[in-house]
């Protein structure tokens, strides 16, 4: 049996190979090869036609077919009622509203609103209950504004002076802002806490100097007689020194402490002027015509008994051609004149 099955298998494979070889020989004939190519070409054309038809059906879908009568429709669309059933619009009523005003109506008189005076209530009374500040600041001058609480102040920090306006930040560490300017003091906003900085606060040294040089309050009076004149305008060396001092005042105010010391002098709470003294170089101090203990009461006609004049003097001296100092020396009136003109110094 196995031998017969093997013989049948070999005969089958031989028949298949003979058949395939016969087909190949017949396909190799020119006539049959041409016919085979024609059949393949026809099949390709039919396939292309079918593909093109499917593409057209995809691009142009057919009209929607209505559902069969026995198909139940959920939420059918109800047709709208006739236009006559809608609510009629009352045009006359809308006209009576006069949305854009009446055409023939007389113009209404303008209602004058009372002017509301804007008062800056944020600064009112902030000085009440405020304590004196412990910050390393000195108030050297004040220019109050006509509006309450505004103005400018000259504040010194670490021997450097600068002019600050309300809401300006001060050079100390932390968030310290100038909150209000008053005639004799200013209010500082130190991180939400209001503190006072008093104008020209005297130190113990200033009080001792005033007690030694100033007579009693009831006996003090202006010296009588004409003021003596000390004219240094022709002295080129004095002019050069005055120019250098003015440059220091506007470039680096703290450097003036090396050449001159300035202390405020008051009597009965009123400012009299500033007492000056030499710094490290006494010879330069005297070269300008000054002597230790001189009390300066005015410069270029600007009296120094009013703290508000400090800023005015600070601005005037920037472009002044000369400086005329009114001072008291040993109970005598004296005037010292120094040139600030560069051409004279040269």
Structural account:
The protein has 346 residues and is α+β, with helices and mostly antiparallel strands. Among the domains are: 131-198, SH3 type barrels (Roll); 204-345, Pdz3 Domain, CATH 2.30.42. The protein is 31% helix and 24% strand. It is built from eight helices and 14 strands. Strands 8, 9, 10, 11, 12, 13 and 14 form a seven-stranded mixed β-sheet that branches. It has a four-stranded mixed β-sheet with strand order 1-7-6-5, with no helix packed on it. The radius of gyration is 54 Å and the shape is elongated. It starts with a helix and ends with a helix. Residues 110-119 and 202-221 have low confidence and may be disordered.
Encode the helix/strand succession as letters: HHHEEEEEEEHEHEEHEEHEEH
DSSP helix count?
8
| Beta-strand percent range | 15-25%
CATH architecture of the domain at 204-345: Roll
Terminal CA distance: 144 Å
Instruction: Let me know the largest β-sheet.
Output: 7 strands, mixed
Question: Layout of SSEs?
Answer:
Blueprint: H1 2-27, H2 30-59, H3 91-96, E1 131-132, E2 138-144, E3 151-157, E4 160-165, E5 176-181, E6 185-190, E7 193-198, H4 204-213, E8 228-231, H5 236-251, E9 260-267, E10 270-278, H6 282-287, E11 295-299, E12 302-303, H7 309-316, E13 322-329, E14 332-339, H8 342-345
Parallel strand pairs: 1-7, 8-14
Antiparallel strand pairs: 2-3, 3-4, 5-6, 6-7, 9-10, 10-11, 11-12, 11-13, 13-14
Brief descriptors of the model:
24% strand; elongated; four-stranded mixed β-sheet; Pdz3 Domain; seven-stranded mixed β-sheet; 346 residues; SH3 type barrels; alpha+beta
């Amino acid at each position: 049996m196995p031998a017969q099955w093997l013989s049948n298998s070999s005969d089958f494979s031989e028949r298949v190979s003979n058949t395939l070889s016969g087909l190949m020989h017949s396909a190799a004939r020119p006539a049959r090869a041409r016919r085979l190519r024609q059949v393949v070409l026809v099949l390709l054309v039919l396939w292309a036609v079918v593909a093109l038809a499917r593409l057209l059906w995809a691009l142009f879908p057919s009209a929607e077919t209505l559902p069969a009568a026995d198909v139940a429709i959920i939420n059918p669309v109800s047709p709208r009622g006739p236009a006559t059933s809608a609510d009629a619009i009352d045009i006359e009523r809308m006209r009576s509203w006069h949305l854009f005003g009446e055409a023939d109506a007389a113009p209404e008189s303008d209602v004058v609103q009372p002017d509301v005076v804007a008062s800056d209530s944020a600064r009112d009374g902030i000085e009440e209950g405020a304590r004196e500040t412990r910050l390393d600041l000195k108030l050297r001058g004040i220019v109050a504004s006509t509006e309450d609480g505004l103005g400018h102040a000259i504040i010194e920090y670490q021997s450097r002076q600068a002019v600050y306006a309300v809401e300006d930040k001060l050079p100390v560490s932390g968030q310290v802002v100038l909150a209000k300017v008053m005639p004799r003091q200013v209010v500082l906003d130190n991180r939400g806490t209001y503190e006072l900085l008093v104008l020209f606060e005297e130190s113990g040294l200033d009080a001792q100097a005033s007690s030694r040089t100033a007579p009693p309050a009831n006996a003090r009076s202006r010296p009588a007689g004409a003021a003596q004149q000390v004219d240094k305008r022709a002295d080129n060396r004095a002019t050069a020194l005055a120019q250098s001092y003015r440059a220091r005042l506007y470039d680096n105010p703290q450097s003036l402490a090396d050449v001159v010391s300035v202390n405020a002098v008051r009597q009965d709470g009123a400012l009299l002027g500033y007492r000056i003294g030499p710094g490290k170089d006494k010879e330069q101090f005297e070269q300008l015509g000054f002597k230790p203990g001189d009390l300066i009461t005015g410069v270029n006609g600007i009296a120094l008994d009013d703290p508000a004049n400090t800023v005015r003097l600070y601005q005037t001296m920037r472009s002044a051609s000369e400086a005329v100092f009114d001072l008291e020396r040993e109970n005598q009136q004296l005037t010292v004149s120094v040139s600030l003109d560069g051409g004279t110094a040269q």
